[in-house]
Amino acid sequence: MSLKIAFLASETEVAQTARRTLVGRYGDVAPERADVIVALGGDGFMLRTLHATQDHSVPVYGMNRGTVGFLMNDYSEDNLIERLRMAEEEVINPLSVRATDRSGKTHHALAINEVSLLRAGPQAAKLRITVDGRLRMAELACDGALLATPAGSTAYNYSAHGPILPIGSDVLALTAIAAFRPRRWRGALLPKTALVRFDVLEADKRPVVSDADALHVADVIRVEAWSEPSIRHRLLFDPGHGLEERLISEQFA
């Protein structure tokens, strides 16, 4: 039985050219009718594809037509059916994010990599951090903070000196960005089931913005985030090159 493939590509010429070539060789169906979705682009396009197709419960196999391509497989026009049949599946859960701005409006989003809070002015942000209803840090003076999933732990989290998390670990990384008080506080590892709340202190004097994948909220006063187990993103990787191996290899690079 042949595989029904939906080819999706970023807007770059190299990705669009690859899509035309692959569609000519393997055919193409709509994502909702596909056995597998092949995403052509970089990591940003992969994240957009996962968000756009999360209701279809179809695995996504990425081929790198972008830059870093951490979530992608190597690009090749040959033996695609065989690669798809042999691919290994990884399942990741996104963060559910609820952000409230100074006007009182609440914004909702899903974040596959992380949710971040960043100062939006010349002064350090001041954040209060509560975990599962228990106050854990009364005041963190910093450039910002983020909560990362294992899949996102090698992205912004790693650049902020946060830990790399094995993909199967049931933990989230809470990481400070340029902490001033407490001095050099890097963050904490939290259970995947944790509900994390950030409250912005002195929001009028020290404005903060929040980002969660495509969601951007200015003048945020409160952000709550938790892992969403009901949503399962299915990613396919060539054998021996899955997220688990990539996360381990990244620590020895």
Automatic annotation (TrEMBL):
GO terms for biological process: NAD+ metabolic process; NADP+ biosynthetic process. One of its GO terms (molecular function) is NAD binding. The active site is at residue 43. Gene3D superfamilies: Probable inorganic polyphosphate/atp-NAD kinase, domain 1 (3.40.50.10330), Probable inorganic polyphosphate/atp-NAD kinase, domain 2 (2.60.200.30). It comes from Pontibaca methylaminivorans. It comes from the Bacteria. This is NAD kinase. Its cofactor is a divalent metal cation. GO terms for cellular component: cytoplasm. The keyword Transferase applies. The keyword Cytoplasm applies. Its EC number is 2.7.1.23. Belongs to the NAD kinase family. It catalyses: NAD(+) + ATP = ADP + NADP(+) + H(+). The lineage of its organism: Bacteria, Pseudomonadati, Pseudomonadota, Alphaproteobacteria, Rhodobacterales. The gene is nadK. It is found in: Cytoplasm. InterPro entries: ATP-NAD_kinase_N, ATP-NAD_kinase_PpnK-typ_C, NAD/diacylglycerol_kinase_sf, NADK. NAD(+) binds at residues 43-44, 48, 113-114, 143, 151, 154-159, 178. Involved in the regulation of the intracellular balance of NAD and NADP, and is a key enzyme in the biosynthesis of NADP. Catalyzes specifically the phosphorylation on 2'-hydroxyl of the adenosine moiety of NAD to yield NADP. Keywords: ATP-binding, Cytoplasm, Kinase, NAD, NADP, Nucleotide-binding, Transferase.
